[in-house]
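Dig into these lines:

——
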Amino acid sequence: MADPNELRDLVARALAEDLGAGDITSEAVVPADAMAKARIVQKQPGVVFGLEVAAEAFAQAGADGFEELQAEGVWRESVPADVALASGPARALLAAERTALNLLCHLSGVATLTARFVDAVREAETTILDTRKTTPGLRALEKAAVAAGGGRNHRLGLYDGVLIKENHLALSGGLAEAVRRAREAEPEREVEVECRNAEDVEAALGTGAERLLLDNMTTEELRAAVAARDAAGRAHGPVATLEASGGIGLDNVAEVAATGVDFISVGALTHSASALDLSMLLEPAR
C-alpha cells in the first residue's frame, strides 16, 4: 500500500477534484443533520482491493466510521456481497461516494485481472510480474493491487532495478559494454538485459547478466531461448532467469508459461484492467 502521507494527499486531491466548492445537489436536498449508513457492495465476481483507500476518502469527507466486512485479496464468486460499511452524516457519505468507488473499483479491477493471469499459469512454474506501465500518481496503489491478486511487483521505478533496453544499447556502445558499466555503477543489483532474438540471447548469456527480458518473442523463440539458457547452465553453472514480455494476454499466457520461462511480465495488469463493479447503497440511520 502507498505511504500513509502519500495516500492522504492523493485522496485529498481526488476529493477536491470532484467536490470543488461543494456538493450542490446534496446541500440542496439532503438535510444537514441527516445521518446514514452506506453499504459498499461487490456486484461482480473478483478480488476486492483498496478498502483502505475508500476508508480514507470517507474519513476526509467527514464520515464517522468505516468497517471492512470482507477480507481483501480473496477471489469472491458469490455476489452481490457487502464488503464494507461506512456511517456518518449523509452529506459526507455522498461527498465521498464517487472518489471512494473510483479508486476501489479500479484497484479491485487490477487485483482481479492479476488473479486471472495467476490462475491461468497455475500448472507452470512461472511468476506473473507487473511493469511500470501504471497510471501516473497511482503506481504504489496499483502495484499493491497486483500483489493482492497474487502477482509479483517488478521494478517500482527507474531507481530500484537495472534493465538495459534497446535504447540504452544504442547509446552505450553495445551489450557487453552496457552490462560492464551497469555492474560497475550498481554492483549489488541484478542486471537484466532486453533481448529481441536468438542472437541477442546468446550475446546476453555471454555477459553473465542475471536476467534476460525476452521481448515480443514467439513461443518457438521462447522455447529456443530456454534451451539456450539451459545448455549454458549445464556448461558453465547457474545462468540467467528468463522473463517473457510483450503481446501476452489471457488467451496465450498459459502457452507462454509452458515454454519454461521463469517470469511473465504483463503491462495490461495495470494499464488495461477493467474496473470491478462495486456500488454504494445508502439508507437512513435508525
The chain has eleven helices and twelve strands. The mean pLDDT is 94. The CA atoms of residues 6 and 140 lie 10 Å apart.
